[in-house]
Amino acid sequence: MVSEAPPFWWIKTGWQAICLYPLSFVYGRISSAILQHRRRHPLSVPVICVGNFTVGGAGKTPTAIAIARAAKARGLTPGFLSRGYGGSLDVTTVVDPHHHRSTAVGDEPLLLAREALTVISRRRVAGAEKLVGEGADLIIMDDGFQSARLQVDYALIVIDSMRGIGNGWVVPSGPVRAPIQVQMRHLDAILKVGKGDAADQFVRQASRSGKPVLVANVMPQSGGDLSGKSVLAYAGIADPRKFYRTLEELGAVIADRQDFPDHHHLADDEISDLLARAEKQGLQLVTTAKDRVRLAGGHGRAAELQEKSKVVDVDMVFDDPKAPDLIIDRAIEACRLRRLAGKA
């Protein structure tokens, strides 16, 4: 999978997308066949998949965390399953946030592991079985919808209302992971994040298909002290503009900014450059939680940059506070029916 989305994916269809169409056609046929025909492995516990239509971020990780918090409040033992994208470990591993570094397990698993039991695995079946063996009674997959390796009891697709699905073309012509009409058949609900209108077409399509549409917003946990403060904002996430919008909503004045590729580990010269620019201009360094975990235990002046950077943590807040519990209820019921059918 592509780690950094080409800019042309997120603008009106141009010559690049058209030239790549033959490859997209083949990719779309393969991804459709996988979604529709791959044999999925059943588990003894409910499985919730938090995915998205496209390559790149849409808010999956904070959504998964919100569901896990609701599960814990009910006395359940949720476990996160992640592929560990961006990490070097290729063996099934229980993530220890106090021991592992992002270079080994990836940045998102470290954030997840602070909330609940987390396993990374390139082989999703092995990872899921490890979670069950470790005591998880509910599995929350962070991504993996299109892989179709596991039998999913509730598939929630997150879509950013500002970004939508870009130019709407399938990889590599665009960011879409499989033809939308095929993905629609296999999801249980859509979560629209934000107040933009780029997702409205798919919200209507989901509604016509009888799929529930949930609504949520990314809300900062803190950051009120940034109001009126001039900052140097830097982010290595799929859509840095989302982070910058959050800062502006908090009242921060973004005097300088620096984008990096998603999951990017800063090199020594990049770290030194950020520190020097902030000092020269008298700016407060500000970054995301994902960028913070990538700095932890890093080389050179990484610790200095981490110490001098203010982090804006965010939560996914559902418009309907009962929505996470409803998702869990539906997954538990689907698992119960699935297991009864298996015994018939």
Mean pLDDT: 93
Oligomer: single chain
The dominant shape is: globular
SS element count, helices: 13
SSE topology string: HHEHEEHHEHEEHEHEEHEHEHHEEH
Beta-strand content = 15-25%
Ends apart, CA distance between termini: 39 Å
How can the largest sheet be summarized? 9 strands, mixed
Work out the helicity level: 25-40%
- How would you classify the helix and strand content by structural class? alpha/beta
Query: Largest sheet, order of strands side by side?
Result: 3-4-2-5-1-6-7-8-13
Instruction: Give the number of DSSP strands.
Output: 13
Radius of gyration: 20 Å
| Uncertain runs | none
Question: Can you lay out the helices and strands and say which pair or pack?
Answer:
Blueprint: H1 15-19, H2 21-37, E1 47-51, H3 60-73, E2 78-82, E3 93-94, H4 102-105, H5 107-113, E4 117-120, H6 124-133, E5 138-142, E6 154-160, H7 180-186, E7 189-193, H8 200-208, E8 213-220, E9 230-235, H9 240-249, E10 253-259, H10 268-281, E11 284-287, H11 289-295, H12 302-308, E12 309-311, E13 314-318, H13 323-343
Parallel strand pairs: 1-5, 1-6, 2-4, 2-5, 6-7, 7-8, 9-10, 9-11, 11-12
Antiparallel strand pairs: 3-4, 8-13
Helix pairs in contact: 3-13, 5-11
